[in-house]
Specification:
By secondary structure, the chain is α/β, with parallel strands linked by helices. The protein has six helices and twelve strands. The strands form two sheets. It has a five-stranded mixed β-barrel, surrounded by four helices. A two-stranded antiparallel sheet has the order 1-2.
């Protein structure tokens, strides 16, 4: 049943079925239910050049998606995430239809506080839903939260390894070029530490399809000042590689 609203994005339909539904396609399951989604193409290239990955499946289409497994740990799958909720979280629903039950996301995001250093890790506790995708899965709300038990497993592991980290909210937006000064300050006041483009959607899919999901985002560029500072966030190859290796361990813990 559709809950009517003047604004289409807030019209929520609680019907669990859909015209296009990957769970009705009888897809062949992946060889494992554990998946890392990374936004680090440089790390993926490094792993492939060093013969550490083998192809699990190519998902054909106009923009093909490739899922790999680690040769030495074939129980762990990895894929390169696509930008934005419709692409990244949409693919995640397809992966869930292929049997994925445990997912760790790792990427970078723009910091809303200049004191968050480049490479500082944020364990995502939830997201401000400033996008449209999640509203098709979970009833309208200002925030959406990760599973507290999953978040605790991640933070407990990081603490056991003495890996410094923050916890908190992200701000998920569809419009990277509309992060205005007033919006940055408002989202920061609401508790968001980092801005990114996928978490609200991915968390919504995890809730809707009932699988374990956690995310770690490292502090990247700085959008907290009057002038954008890239801080060369996408060149931090050591941080990015180490974070993927960390996620290999975490996806077994959740």
């Amino acid at each position: 049943m559709i809950t009517k609203n003047d604004y289409p994005v807030l019209e929520f339909d609680d019907d669990k079925d859909a015209v296009v539904n990957p769970f009705k396609w009888n897809l062949d399951p992946f060889s494992s239910d554990k998946l890392i989604i990374t936004f680090f193409p440089d790390v993926m290239k490094n792993l492939m050049e060093n013969n550490q990955l083998e192809l699990e499946r190519e998902i054909s289409g106009e923009n093909p998606v490739y899922v790999y497994r680690f040769k030495e740990q074939p129980e762990i799958l990895i894929t390169l995430g696509y930008v934005g909720c419709p692409a990244c979280a949409g693919n995640l629903e397809f992966f869930a239809a292929c049997g994925v039950k445990k997912v760790i996301f790792c990427g970078g995001g723009g910091v809303l506080d200049k004191n968050i250093k480049v490479g500082q890790l944020l364990v995502v506790e939830g997201a401000i839903r400033d996008e449209g995708f999640s509203y098709r899965y979970i009833e309208p709300s200002r925030y959406i939260y990760t599973d507290k038990n999953i978040t605790k497993k991640i933070t407990d592991y990081l603490e056991s390894k003495k890996i410094p980290h923050l916890t908190g909210l992200t701000w998920t937006t569809d419009a990277m070029f509309r992060e205005t000064r007033a919006l940055v300050e408002q989202r920061k006041a609401e508790g968001a530490k980092i801005v990114e483009m996928e978490q609200a959607g991915c968390i919504a899919i995890a809730q809707y399809r009932n699988f374990d999901y956690g995310a770690i985002i490292y502090g990247g560029d700085d959008v907290s000042q009057d002038e954008w500072d890239t801080r060369s966030w996408d060149k931090r190859k050591g941080i990015r590689y180490n974070l993927v290796m960390l996620c290999k361990e975490l996806v077994k813990e959740i």
